[in-house]
User: Fold this.
Amino acid sequence: MKIFSYCYNKPEYLLLQNKCLRKFIKEPFEFYCIDNSKEIHFENQFKEICKNNNIHYVKNGKPDHSLEGTSHYSALQWSYDNIISKTSEIIVMIDHDNFLIRPVSIEKILGDAHIAGGMQSRGHVYYLNPCLMIMNTATMPDKTSLKFKGRMIEGFGTDVGGELYFYLKKTNVNRKELVGGIVEKNNPILLGLEDKYGYPHTFDFIEGAFLHPRNGANWARVPALEHGNREKLILEILAANL
Assistant:
């Protein structure tokens, strides 16, 4: 099994994610950092972390930082075309700010499905949220045909991952929707810290194990204090669980 984390500007998140994945995933795996950073100081930090923590470092070979969506898409597509599509095993593609806080079996989550993820929809167009995707490249049909670009599809605008619609609607693809939901105030996961940092901050809790903040890149332009408080809340939750 191989896990690919898509890293941009938070080297400290790579360290935390490495720690929680190794603590809570039951199966052995190889961990890859796909470095999608723009600045050399981030690149150097990612390289050093990988060198010292048994993480495979890979630089995005075809970056496109013209827009937030194209940046993420370029890293997903390049790594899939050049590395993942050539494998024959279970693969996890995960955002760098998606953290495990409970024990989990990736093999059990995927089961007999070819591909799994949180489902997003725009009208009748459905696709997987790329914050967490699991697939078995040994059994997937037409595995070289996956595309991740967000664009207008059949009259509906999609974000990153939108073009997965064309793969998912193939009749021979066995897909699985991951179970998740927004973490509400007073959820024990939040450790009673809501008043300390303010709430609501929007988190997804996926398969009862993965904690992922929405709007991680702050595309919604929430105030800096609120965005910073959410990061502090994440770090306290992780500290308590690791």
The chain has a mean pLDDT of 92. The first strand starts at residue 2 and ends at 7.
